[in-house]
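Problem statement: downstream parser choked on a complex file, so we are re-checking the raw output for the zinc ion run. The parser issue turned out to be on our end (a line-ending mismatch), but while we're here, posting the original submission so the record is complete.
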Amino acid sequence: MNLADGYALMVQAAVEGMRPDPELRCDEWAEEFMKLPKSGPKPGEFRFDHSYPARRVHQVLSPGHPCKRVVAKVASQMFKTQTALNWIASLIHRRPRNILALEPTDTLVKRFSARVSTMIRNVPELAERVAAAKSRDSRNTVQAKDFLGDATLYMNTAGSAANLAEVSAPYIYVDEIDRLELNVDGEGDPVELAEARATQYANDSKFFYTSSPAIEGFSKIDTLFEMGTKEYYHVPCPHCGELQPLLLENFRFRRDEETGFMDRAWFVCPHCWCEIDERHKTMMLRDEVAGGRARWVATAQGDGETVSFTLSAFYMPVGAVTWLTLARQYARAKDRLARGDHEGMQVFYNTRLGLSYKNSETVTTAKQLRDRAEKYPLRVLPDAALVATMTADTQPNRLEVQIEAWGPGMEHWVIDFIVLNGPPTDPPETPGSVWQRLDEIRRTPLLHASGRPIMISAYGIDAGGANTQDVYNYGAARRTLNCTVLHGSSRPNKPIMGSSPSRVDIDWGGTKTPGGVELWTVGTDVAKDWLSNRMQLLEGPGAMHFNDALPPEWFDQMVVEQSRTRWHKGRAIREWVKPNGARNEAWDVSVYNLAIAHQLGLHKWTPLDWQRLRDKLIPPIGDLFAPVPAPAPVLVAPPPLTVPPAPPSAPATPAPSPVQTSVPAEPPSPAPVVLPPPAMPPPAPVPAPPAPLPPIARPAPRRRIYSRGIQ
Ligand SMILES: [Zn+2]
């Protein structure tokens, strides 16, 4: 050894001495120390042979890896919790610092804490560190476990800002982040709040976020995933060897032609078009450490401090959920989706594919609706429809009115949309007031495609705007005319139409009438879900038809609101939100028409009920040689503006006149369609005298006049 060599050795020794102890990576630690509980599915020493993809996630979680955030957007019951436990255990053992673990609910905190306790019992290296801390009379509770090194593992919900505020920790695990409340006690984003716990640790901190995602556009794990490297697990094709991710678009399944049962599920390789069966999976999933070729492939550079992964249930180890099971679940979800029910598909996307769900292959754009608009005459019920409803939305300077026609299976057609300009504060009896013009529309018969006149069966007015008392006053006097005063409630799971009204006071023009009006509550969120989920249907039950003469803004307003899922105490709350200042009257009156249809009980009608009504309204002609039936009553073109003096109001759509017009001074009022309860033969449309409108400023005496009867 010469002098130079000696100097080099000395320098090397000095450098070694300054370096921290060589880090054992988290994946190595797990294989060396982690013992899984005897009661679990894989008792004994932890191995990656049931979750090869988890290996790299462990590696980047290791304190020696430079990344700051690790994001796992994965299907349910993949490797999330065990990875978190391995990480926490290796930290307790090798890098004792405070650790904060956040769960969406108290129940999940308890469950996670129980798994931590079991782990501590099973792994001697952890047990002695917790026990050593215990001897100093310290905490070993559900929510906090002290361990050697003057450090604590805190386990809590992210549901309260207070839970986050008291703790300072460099290592933070946030489980099921899409199930957390988006806004913790109004103080902001739980990610920001959690990361604020680690500010004093600067470069030494690390965050591990996991979740199966929720709704697209509102998914926190999506946002975190996008910030990072966006890594997909690529596996080699057993035939051509090309590496590829297992994607839904390459997934195939088959039903047995005789039994109809699903009997095979496989992937098609997009490179060689060969079929990949589940039996190939064990070989395909093996990573390089295990002698295979599978590996994570990053698809983005990311922000330089976030490594993000996504993994679907297609990568479940053999023995867990099979491809065939997934194919059956997917096929069932597709069947439900075809009926307008998105729940199954959302669950499949979120928990199986590890993807957020957009309620819309589904959410329709205004342009899509406009492109779909149909040519049919306004104010004419198409042949399939037999019942007409109308609703009005009140605005400070106008009413917006929509008339819809309803047919079997709740298929419905917008047959007119009218804006009545003028202040709703004018008393209803004022000539030319919006209320008078609304009455005029109600009194004017519509036409059925068969040529028969049909009256609006029921109509509703939203009392939720700025003119509540005006609406009460108007509606109270028209209860006999099937006028319903409506009030929207966005409380979750409220029925589309309440079963009974509440009575509220009228205070109008200085006159108080206690309990003077019946107020019916509309479950607007449920109604909006119903409409929106069926918006892509072109025809058949539940489909909504739009007229191409509707104004362009009508279509914009139909799609302006978006649904989102908020998580409160671990429970999903679906709600509809409107961008500030956006107009949505068309959407509102559509929702209210649906509510009126429910009030009439149309949603319960069987095909037989519809046929009975059809037979009453449009008697079959029968014998072609029978005497010609009397001509249909004189039909009247809609004259919504005939009430003088006509204010400068214009219907939003030009009043169409598809019918022969002859406007008598007092139009004959054909019989209103009296709606039968389901399974009851509908009464014949008895000609009624023209309904006189009491010139009211004061509500009618309190009495229950009409029987809605069809709840
Ligand atoms: Zn191939």
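For whoever reads this later: Residues 237, 239-240, 242, 269, 271-272, 274 surround zinc ion (CB under 6 Å).
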